[in-house]
Amino acid sequence: DTGVSQNPRHKITKRGQNVTFRCDPISEHNRLYWYRQTLGQGPEFLTYFQNEAQLEKSRLLSDRFSAERPKGSFSTLEIQRTEQGDSAMYLCASSPKGAGGNEQFFGPGTRLTVL
Amino acid sequence: LAKTTQPISMDSYEGQEVNITCSHNNIATNDYITWYQQFPSQGPRFIIQGYKTKVTNEVASLFIPADRKSSTLSLPRVSLSDTAVYYCLVGDSWGAVLAAGNKLTFGGGTRVLVKP
User: Fold this and answer.
1) Which residues of B touch A112 (CB under 8 A)?
2) pLDDT tens, B14-49?
């Protein structure tokens, strides 16, 4: 399977702990996106990379959130000092350079539960 | 930001055609219309995308009137496995403009339930 992969699939943590998620995009895709989705809502955009450059960050992304894509391949999303409100599904997507419109390929997501 | 409005839910039966209309009155000249499908505990999956008139692929058809202020996703002869949430998105082409990320706004989607 050469789709977008995310690890871990599930993460349970205690409030105040730090967590890190990984996303491996489709290999030839240079664009990578992170979203957050809570129950019953559509995905909310968090941030976007083109190669290793982080080009856009949502106002939703507080200082406790940081994302990296050091070599323009995989990406990590870290949440520091987690809060119960951070509980959600974190989705990663990728798209190839030159893609028209908004066709993105999504991974299965990482479900975070903060106790 | 082109806000979209879709029905919250729709019920249908196997073998019927399902049409979901999305309103996007503030669509901009450079905006595409894109539809995604999402099953529980999975990421969204791209279905179809269009700019104007009609687009058809092996899964669905997308009808866009001349004023582009709305669009209709048509799913022919649905089956139980088409039960999902369907999202309408409106936004720039990423290839042309480094658009603001908030253009990728999913909204609440339409929950389609296909009954036997």
Assistant:
1) none
2) 999 999 999 999 888 888 889 999 998 899 999 999
Radius of gyration over alpha carbons of chain A, in Å? 13
Which of chain B's residues have a Cβ under 8 Å away from the Cβ of A48? 101
User: Which span out of A88-92, B3-7, B98-102 was modeled with the highest average pLDDT?
Assistant: A88-92
Q: How far is B95 from chain A (nearest CA, A)?
A: 4
Amino acid at B36: Y
Of A45, A91, A101, the CB nearest to B101: A45
- The percent of chain B in helix, strand and coil, each rounded to the nearest 5, is 5, 45, 45
Residue A71 has pLDDT above 70, yes or no: yes
Distance CA B28, CA B80 (A): 36
- Top residue of B3, B94, B98 to mutate, by most chain A CBs within 10 Å, is B94
**pLDDT above 50 (res B102):** no
- Test B45 with A106 for CB contact under 8 angstroms: yes
CB-CB contact of A15 with A83 (8 Å): yes
Average pLDDT over chain B, rounded to an integer: 87
Higher pLDDT, A41 or A110: A110
Q: Which residues of B59-89 are buried (b: 16+ CB within 10 A; e: fewer)?
A: ebbbbbeeebebbbbbbeebeeebbbbbbbb
Cβ proximity of B91 and A102 under 8 Å = yes
